[in-house]
Amino acid sequence: MSDVHRTPTSGSNQSRAEASDMLVVSELGVRSQNKAILEEISFKVKKGISLAIVGPNGGGKTTLFRALLKLIPYTGMIRWNDKIRMGYVPQGLVSTDFPLSVAEFLRFKCRTDLEACIRSVGLEKEILRQSLGSLSGGELQRVLIAWAIVDDPSVLLFDEPTSGVDIGAEEPIYDKVNSLKKEIGITILLITHNIHVVMHYADYVLALNKRVLFFGDSKSLTHSQLLSIIYGNEFALSEEEYHKE
User: Fold this and answer.
1) Which end of the chain has the smaller Cβ count within 10 Å, N or C?
2) Does a structural domain hold residue 95?
3) Nearest Cα to 172, choosing from 142, 140, 204?
4) Is 3 a member of any domain?
5) Looking at the 3D structure of the chain, how many domains does it have?
6) For the chain, which ranges sit under pLDDT 50?
7) CA 182 to chain centre
8) Which CATH number goes with the domain that contains 96?
9) Residue 100 structural domain
10) Spatial CA neighbour of 68 closest among 226, 208, 233
């Protein structure tokens, strides 16, 4: 794939974070078994925006999250805002083997009003008595979101938050996440393959396939271009679209 629209990767302005920047990434690289997984990744995330991270399978999206969470070695720079408080919802958590009830699970972080905690994600208090293993995919994701937001994070990282969720349950989850962004100004980084989510819930798009293919306003990409990115096909922006930023 060709590099279409990349952020600058050199000069002092790239590494100097502004007050409104929640995250600055410069020249990020990740290698595994002497193989490049990510190369020269540079972008910024402003406070209170939602960034969708898209690209083909194997393009490095989850690896990027792991680097941002400082779980793996990397080269380059990752600079979070000094006052960052982070929440994280991982991909594909399976609950069938968990004997804990929802209440017991939430008590690990929520020491006060569990009912208010669960109501914040649109669930009723009765679910607190259920075991995690008995929940539907949509219910589990809402519980995980409740877990992630209970200590008032300033940034939420979501890795395919509706993976394995019934189609009818996807929209309420994204509606809830979007309302949190509007109500309390949470900054959201979201890995997704869902074009509808990108077009309707994301302010910006970071397209990856080991390198940055595109970083900019989500409205700068068409439906067909997003499909090409997600499935790993060649795509190109017109000269007019390239200079929209």
Assistant:
1) C
2) yes
3) 142
4) no
5) 1
6) 1-15, 235-245
7) 16
8) 3.40.50.300
9) 12-242
10) 208
